[in-house]
Amino acid sequence: MKSTVEQLSPTRVRLSVEVPFDELSSDFDRAYKSLAQQVNIPGFRRGKAPAKLIEARVGRDAVLSQVVNDALPGKYSQAVTETETKALGQPEIDITKLEYGQSLEFTAEVDVRPDVTLPPYDDVVVTVGSLSVTDEEVEEQLKGLRERFGTLKGVERPIETGDFVTIDLSATVDGADVEDARTTGLSHEVGNGDLIDGLDDTLVGMTAGETKEFTTELVAGGHAGEEAVVTVTVGSVKERELPEVDDEFAQLASEFDTVEELKADLRQRVEQNKKLGQASEIRDGVLEKLLELTDIPVPANIVEAQAAEQLHDALHQLNHDEDLLAKALEAQGLTRDEFEKQAHESAEKQVRVQLLLDAIADAEEVSVDQQELQEHILFQAQRYGMNPGEFIQQVQQANQLPALFQEVRRGKGLANVVLEAKVIDSDGNVVDTKSLFDREGDEVTEVEATAGDEVEATASDEVETTETVAVEASADEAEPESAAQSESAAQSESAQQ
Q1: Which of 482, 476, 429, 461 is CA-nearest to residue 287?
Q2: What is the Cα–Cα distance from 111 to 471, expressed in whole angstroms?
């Protein structure tokens, strides 16, 4: 088989493939065997008729068409492999020569990973927050611990921010009751803003047994985006009493004997949390800086496909109800055009991230062994709260193992850049990234374990609607298709020729 490549653009090529007729012999054997099961020829049992009789019955062109349908996907993939074409997505197949006894010739236009010139890693400079811990931060942690051990006591006074109340709620839109907005005996901490906009402001100053009305905009349900009159009735009011900060409290709330020991431990925990946050900030900052410094041509077809997938996901969450989507977007102050524009921008950024990380992994010659893949699978299973065996089964059924492999490979590549980048904290100190990200034995670093999440987060930061419309571009779900994944597309395309 002979294959040549013509570069149409930085992100698209045309493969021209010539397959000698004798290379199709095994495909002809399979075609005759398949057709023998489909036709009845007098004097022969089904499946036993000779090839010449089958050809005479169905016609040589029908046999040739089936051969091409069966052979084309494999020949396309073979051409991709032999020419080292980094194919993405589905090819557009055009059969240019199809004659019995002569070579099969076809062309395939397909998007490809572009050549990406990476900047020197020491050009990547990012600034992150410092790890210094203030007394105020320690006191905030101590306050949270005290609240966990606090007790609620009923009070007979107007409601204040921070009180705990039980309330009944109901709502009307244009005078009609909203059934799914009615609730009784609901517990609520005043001031946390978890419920309806305007509720906390209304509750402050009310007393037990009092009823008030206020106007707000509903954000969920069948009346999302519509203005409603909400009625709230207070059942009870309680305040939280916090325990005194003394050695007795330290012994109650921790394994320490004294308040000083407890505060020292809280300080250490705050610092550790800051290290984790700083590690994440470094990873995000390095990736953003790389995107800023690197010219990455983007395959338009891949972006369009992923943007369409985001729109499909949003509609799927709303049972493909276009009216409900319109209401949800209106509640966010978005038009359909603005939403689709954001989805397109999000998809384009996601593709850029993927192409960048793939280029880094190639440049660093990153490999992934079985243990690293297993560790990542376990990490993802824990993330989704699933049994590892069940998670692996679902991954295999969805053919997502290649996507998980790519996540690990991209993560390792990004980790290499992070270790060489220059990082400065807000106090002007140079951050030792090796102390945060370096590997010990086979332990997966934080940056490697979460690089796949970074692809998802980067892509989804710019696309947000309502609680019921959350469009997230997952790396798992939005992985550009490889040549192997598009074989079925090639087969379908050839059937139309």
Answers
A1: 461
A2: 25
Residue range 441-474, pLDDT digits in tens: 333 344 444 444 444 444 334 333 322 232 222 2
What the block records as the tokens of 135 is 């007394």
Q: Where in the chain is the domain with CATH 3.30.70.1050?
A: 2-112
Q: What is the pLDDT of residues 220-272, one digit of tens each?
A: 777 877 899 999 999 999 999 999 999 999 999 999 999 999 999 999 999 99
CATH number for region 2-112: 3.30.70.1050
Rounded Cα–Cα distance for residues 334 and 314 (Å): 14
CATH 1.10.3720.10, applies to 151-241: no
Q: What is the pLDDT of residues 417-442, one digit of tens each?
A: 999 999 999 989 999 888 877 543 33
What residues does CATH 3.10.50.40 cover in the chain? 151-241
